[in-house]
């Protein structure tokens, strides 16, 4: 019972069923990205994908049969999961998906709209046929690819079952998009985003804080806000640039050509972005690498509160900010209020003291720690 799986999915799709439609990334040139660097892009045939869906469907029938045997009726319970784990652990992924409701599917990998629209529609219809309980099917794609699709094609995909596209906008500033080899312009981002919305697709755009570095942070924030305000996507998801092994940008950092921002500078950049951002969608900071995860809300009425969180952080004395940064990065804190827990606060202070004794520069330690996350 095997089926192909790609390496990544958005955090919001953690409980989805993953179906691999294409392999890797057809572009694969962005300087900040490490994900597919050693792998070549290829398309899978509709037959190959259908074989995977059939295998997943058979797996789901087996899991349901185990549920009946375990006395759980048609429901997949924790007992069913244990039963499956003991007898056929390779079914666990499907069992977990059914346990979570069996409603969401995420198509892998980086840009599935490269597949001819009729073929992708055939795959989407087949998913719906085999899994009638599925309510949401989403995929990653690139603005460049969407901009080349007609609204009619996108509508056809929506009618076949596609619910949402996740797009890496990263920045709205053209010179920065070119520098980072993103392979798309701000105008194409806008065109793609508006087309997706016109076709009735839910739109999730990813922004990368810190991408402008010391030289372009201001333009990055302002132009990204401008482009996003025009598109007004349903979701804006925040990511933070991380300098790590495997990204081409590392070489430019080592030569000094690109100077990354420190955490507090990134927070100021985010403030500028938010201050200039208009929209009606939801702004989400759903990634461990973002310093202020609680900057989140509905742009139509939570913007002041979100900026308030940023100002609360920036108004803290430098020592308190340093305490929060360390605590957040090593997983002791999640939110600013976590610092009020005296036990956790002193745990962070002990760690800081140890770093000092071991001769660490705190910023270097934090950069090093950040680079270890996926
Ligand atoms: S398009 Fe996406 S997956 Fe491809 S290289 Fe760029 S960031 Fe990575």
What would you say this structure looks like, in words?
47% of the residues lie in helices and 13% in strands. The chain contains 15 helices and 10 strands. The two termini are 28 Å apart. The strands form 2 sheets. Strands 1-4-5-6-7-8-9-10 form an 8-stranded mixed β-sheet. By secondary structure, the protein is α/β, with parallel strands linked by helices. Strand 4 (104-108), helix 4 (117-130) and strand 5 (136-141) form a beta-alpha-beta unit. It has 3 domains: 1-130, no CATH class; 142-315, Aldolase class I (TIM Barrel, Alpha-Beta Barrel); 318-374. It has helices spanning 46-69, 78-87, 92-99, 117-130, 143-147, 151-160, 174-179, 186-198, 213-231, 249-254, 263-275, 303-314, 318-329, 342-357, 362-370; strands at 17-20, 22-23, 42-43, 104-108, 136-141, 162-170, 202-209, 235-240, 282-284, 297-298. The mean pLDDT is 94. It binds iron/sulfur cluster (SF4). Iron/sulfur cluster (SF4) binds next to loops. The site of iron/sulfur cluster has 11 residues, from loops.
């Amino acid at each position: 019972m095997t089926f192909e799986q790609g390496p990544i999915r958005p955090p919001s799709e953690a409980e989805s069923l993953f179906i691999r439609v294409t392999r890797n990334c057809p572009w694969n040139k962005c300087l900040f990205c490490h994900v597919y660097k050693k792998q070549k892009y290829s398309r899978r045939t509709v037959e190959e994908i259908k074989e995977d869906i059939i295998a997943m469907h058979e797996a789901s029938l087996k899991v349901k049969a185990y549920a009946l045997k375990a006395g759980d009726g048609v429901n997949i319970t924790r007992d069913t999961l244990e039963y499956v784990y003991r007898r056929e652990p390779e079914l666990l992924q499907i069992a977990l998906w059914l346990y979570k409701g069996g409603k969401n599917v995420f198509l892998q990998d980086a840009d599935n709209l490269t597949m001819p629209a009729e073929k992708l529609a055939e795959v989407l219809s087949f998913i719906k046929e085999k899994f009638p309980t599925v309510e949401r099917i989403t995929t990653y794609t690139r603005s460049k690819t969407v901009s080349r699709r007609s609204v009619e094609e996108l509508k056809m995909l929506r009618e076949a079952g596609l619910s949402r596209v996740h797009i890496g906008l990263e920045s709205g500033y053209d010179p920065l998009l070119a520098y980072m080899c993103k392979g798309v312009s701000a105008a194409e981002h806008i065109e793609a985003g508006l087309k997706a919305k016109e076709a009735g697709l839910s739109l999730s755009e990813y922004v990368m804080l810190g991408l402008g570095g010391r030289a372009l942070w201001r333009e990055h924030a302002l132009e990204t806000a401008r482009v996003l305000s025009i598109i007004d996507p349903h979701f804006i998801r925040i990511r933070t640039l991380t300098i790590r092994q495997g990204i081409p940008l590392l070489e430019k950092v080592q030569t000094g050509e690109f100077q990354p921002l420190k955490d507090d500078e990134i927070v100021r950049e985010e403030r500028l972005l938010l201050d200039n951002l208009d929209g009606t969608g939801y702004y989400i900071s759903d990634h461990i690498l973002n310093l202020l995860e609680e900057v989140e809300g509905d742009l139509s009425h939570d913007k002041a509160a979100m900026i308030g969180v940023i100002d609360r952080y920036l108004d803290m004395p430098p020592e308190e900010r340093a305490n929060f940064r360390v605590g957040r990065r090593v997983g002791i804190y999640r939110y600013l209020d976590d610092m009020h827990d005296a036990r956790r606060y002193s745990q962070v202070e002990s760690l800081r003291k140890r770093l000092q004794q071991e001769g660490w520069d705190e910023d270097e330690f934090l950069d090093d720690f950040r680079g270890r996350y996926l």
